[in-house]
Design brief:
single chain, mainly alpha, Cyclin A, domain 1, 2 domains, 0% strand
C-alpha cells in the first residue's frame, strides 16, 4: 500500500514539473530566449527539485529564477521586469498588466533571493553540457550517409529537434549523458518514419554506436521509453 502511495505521489510531482517546464519553455520563447538558455533553465529547475522537496517552494517562482539565472549562465541576460511581466501574463491571461507597486518589487526581490538560494543548493554548478551540439553533428553526418530523396521526403531532422526540446519536460537531462540523448532522439525520429540507415545491417557496428561508442541498445530503449512517458503525461494534463 505504501509503495502505491509513493508511486502516485511521484507521478503527481512529475505532472507538476511537466506543467512548470512547459511554462519555462513558453515564457522563454516569449522572452526571445534561444534553445540552449531555455534548456539550461529547465535543467536548473529539475536539478533544484532533485535536491529539495516540491512542497517546500513555489515551483513557478523557482522557474522564474531558473530563467533569470540561465540567462546569465548562457550570456543572454534578461531583465527581471520582463520575466515578471511575461510570467504574469502566462499565469493570469485575463488580468491587467502589472503595476509597479509594492507587490511587483517584492516579487522581483524574491526572484533575486531565490537565484542565490538555487546557486547554493546546486553548489554553483549551473553550467551543463546539452545534447544540441551533438544532435546537430549527428544530423549532418547522417544526411551525408542517406539517400538525398529519402532524407528530404521525411521530416526526421525537425522531429528529432522537437523530441529533444520535449525531453526537457522530464529529467532525461540529468539521467543520461548528452551524446546518448542526442542519438536516442535521432533513433526515435528515424523509427517514427521507418527510415533505415543505408548498409546498417552489413556494418560492423550499428550507426548509433559509430556516433557514441559507449552507448548500448538497452540505454537507447530506456531513453525512448522515458520520452514516450513524457508524451503520455502530456495527454493526461489539461
Amino acid at each position: 500500500m505504501e509503495e502505491v502511495k509513493k508511486e502516485g505521489h511521484l507521478v503527481s510531482e512529475a505532472k507538476v514539473h511537466f506543467k512548470v517546464t512547459r511554462f519555462i519553455m513558453e515564457a522563454g520563447v516569449k522572452l526571445g530566449m534561444q534553445s540552449i538558455p531555455i534548456a539550461t533553465a529547465c535543467t536548473i529547475y529539475h536539478k533544484f527539485f532533485c535536491e529539495t522537496k516540491l512542497d517546500a517552494y513555489d515551483p513557478y517562482l523557482i522557474a522564474m529564477s531558473a530563467i533569470y539565472l540561465a540567462g546569465k549562465v548562457e550570456e543572454q541576460h534578461l531583465r527581471t521586469r520582463d520575466i515578471i511581466n511575461v510570467s504574469h501574463r502566462y499565469l493570469n491571461p485575463k488580468s491587467e498588466p502589472l503595476e509597479l507597486d509594492s507587490w511587483f518589487w517584492e516579487l522581483r526581490d524574491s526572484i533575486v533571493q531565490c537565484e542565490l538560494l538555487m546557486l547554493r543548493v546546486l553548489h554553483f554548478r549551473v553550467s551543463f553540457q546539452h545534447p544540441h551540439k551533438y544532435l546537430l553533428h549527428y544530423l549532418i553526418s547522417l544526411k551525408n550517409w542517406m539517400n538525398r530523396h529519402s532524407w528530404e521526403r521525411t521530416p526526421v531532422s525537425l522531429v528529432a529537434w522537437a523530441l529533444l526540446r520535449d525531453s526537457y519536460h522530464g529529467v532525461l537531462c540529468l539521467r543520461y549523458p548528452a551524446p546518448h540523448i542526442a542519438v536516442a532522439v535521432l533513433y526515435l525520429a528515424l523509427q517514427c518514419y521507418g527510415v533505415e540507415v543505408p548498409a546498417d545491417s552489413e556494418a560492423e557496428k550499428p550507426w548509433w554506436q559509430v556516433f557514441s561508442e559507449d552507448l548500448t541498445k538497452p540505454v537507447i530503449d530506456n531513453i525512448v521509453s522515458d520520452l514516450i512517458q513524457i508524451y503520455t503525461m502530456d495527454t493526461e494534463i489539461p
